[in-house]
Amino acid sequence: MQTTFPQLLLQHASSRPTAAAMREKEYGIWQSLTWADLATMVEHLAAGLHQAGLRRGEHMVVVGANRPRLYATMLAVQSLGAIPIPLYQDAVAAECVFPINNAEVRFAFAEDQEQVDKLLEIRESCPQLQHVFFDDPRGLRNYDEPGLAAMDELQAAGKAFAAIHTDFFKEEVARIVPTDVAAMFFTSGTTGNPKGVVHTHDSLLNRARAGADFDKLTSSEEVLAYLPPAWIGQNIFSYAQWLSCGYVVNCPESSATATIDLKEIGPTYYFAPPRVFEGLLTSVMIRMEDAGTLKRGMFHFFMAVAKRCGPALMDGKEVSFTDRLLYALGNLMVYGPLRNNLGMSRVRVAYTAGEAIGPDLFTFYRSIGVNIKQLYGSTETAVFVCLQPDNEARADTVGVPCEGVEIKVADNGEILVKSPGLLKEYYKNPAATAEVLTAEGWYHTSDAGFIDAHGHLKIIDRVKDVGRIKGGANDGAMFAPKYVENKLKFFQHIKEVVAYGDGRDRVCVMINIDFDAVGNWAERRNLPYAGYTDLAQKTQVYQLIKECVEKVNADLAEDTLLAGSQVSRFLVLHKELDADDGELTRTNKVRRGFIAEKYQPLVDALYSDLTSQYIETVVKFEDGRTGKVSATLRIDDAKTFAPAKAAA
């Protein structure tokens, strides 16, 4: 049955008013909010926003972390037929100007003083921004700005209005239809201004239901909402599916306590990009290296058992009686406590997406009994395009098309998708809309890939990034930078990689080490260092990274299609790539072109005979100040391997 977000809220409030809808951790204590209380809050906020002048079809930005009042504000905006636009809370002020002006935004929700300051800073550039409502009043007592008001005041005014106009809220909700616009999400804007992706109630809820049906989600699930609400992945898992299924969304106290809160909540349905799963595993391995000999030996013994038979048991396959017995013992002594320590003791379904996940990392979680799977989707497809069935989870695919989805591969290898979850349009950008949506309803994903023999989709790279080696021994060979970057990032000591090679005679890469993992590695070898820049240029660290690069080269040599993508030269960057410095998008994707321009001397040095290169880089600190980081970077050659001969 077709419905809308506010209608789902009222259904839950009517059928299960005392059930918990959300929990928020404040001052170390979890506070619950029932469906009935949430509906009342949304009604009062909607009435308050109506009185303030928000009208049907208008946009309102919401900037902040996952909080009950942020979610309630989005529902209140939708209840009036207006459209919420979540923005990234860690975006700098200048990044908010284009979305606010593009959508002609007059109203904004700001979580706290930091977000208020950001919006007030850009007011001259956004003269139409009239009203800013804040949730957390700390630090804002002496602010005297026109249009700045507390959510408490808005809610109180709305409560008074609703007491007089008792049918106002329900009448407004009844006016909304599934084909109305429900939300707008701005893309990361890697090659220019971001684009506003317009979604209807139906497109978002259709995909939410498809995902819920696929994994048999119920109202008894527990979810931890810790990723940015502006990212559609978080929005689908903790907003669209939350309202569709009626489960409980838990909001951590802060990003700093998310890992602790994960353990306290013990979610049953969990989503994280690969870097989060990798970070959790890295912390475990670091602690294990520091453990006693007996404990470390037991861990490695039972992990060998888990690697041998854990994934098979997870997939319901037969294993020997001895292995089954050893695994049960390992579950009691190692896997169970480990899952509990990771906060995953109750996880029934865990998903990862956004980047490729390393096979070793993927196997590790499945081997200890965490049902981790991959999915494929994007902002424009309302996330769910492909999902992995429970017994068909593999690291090298992104699953099978889910309900309602059709996939075909174009002649150039691009994946085309037809789905009920496709965007309505790019806001005020008909040219960009026409580029991605065909008259027959096919969406151009810009991803290159293919369907394997088992019906699973495999992604190679972005179509525009797949290039060719020009000149040298590998002249004409295919070059897939993302594929190479991901294979290197599968190593725990490597955090980010930027690969170049299209139109050149060889492949060269710039690497970010994982400071925590390499730092721990250095400390165990009594290798002193004074910060990231110093550690990155250590001879021993270069040797460690060189071994990783050459392992990837050996692996690439086995693939006749991509053997020419082996890395010839590499360097380790003197600073971590950062979204605040423009080197990553807000979803932590490498901006390869921008980095090539910013570090042009390094790229030139990689493709010359130089063995070192001096570089000085301007960096931006969290408080807005700028500084400079400089270093002379070493450049190393890596061993490449002869391509394996294709089978006859």
In short:
The chain is of the alpha/beta class. The chain contains 21 helices and 28 strands.
Notes on the protein architecture:
With 648 residues, the chain is α/β, with parallel strands linked by helices. It is globular. Among the domains are: 5-200, Rossmann fold (3-Layer(aba) Sandwich); 273-347, no CATH class; 466-637, ANL, C-terminal domain (GMP Synthetase, Chain A, domain 3, 2-Layer Sandwich). The protein has a five-stranded parallel sheet with strand order 4-3-5-6-7, with helices on both faces. The model has no long low-confidence stretch (mean pLDDT 92). Helix 1 (5-15) crosses helix 2, helix 12 (293-314) crosses helix 13 (321-342) and helix 12 packs across helix 14. The protein starts with a helix and ends in an 11-residue tail after the last strand. The protein contains 21 helices and 28 strands. Helices cover 39% and strands 21% of the residues.
Measured by DSSP, the beta-strand proportion falls in 15-25%
- The largest beta-sheet arranges its strands as 4-3-5-6-7
Look at the structure and give the mean pLDDT.
92
The gyration radius over C-alpha positions equals 26 Å
| CATH-scheme architecture of the domain at 5-200 | 3-Layer(aba) Sandwich
* Secondary structure: number of strands: 28
The stretches of 5 or more residues where confidence is low (pLDDT under 50) are none
| Percent helix | 25-40%
**Which structural class fits the helix and strand makeup?**
alpha/beta
CATH class of the domain at 5-200: Alpha Beta
Major beta-sheet overview: 5 strands, parallel
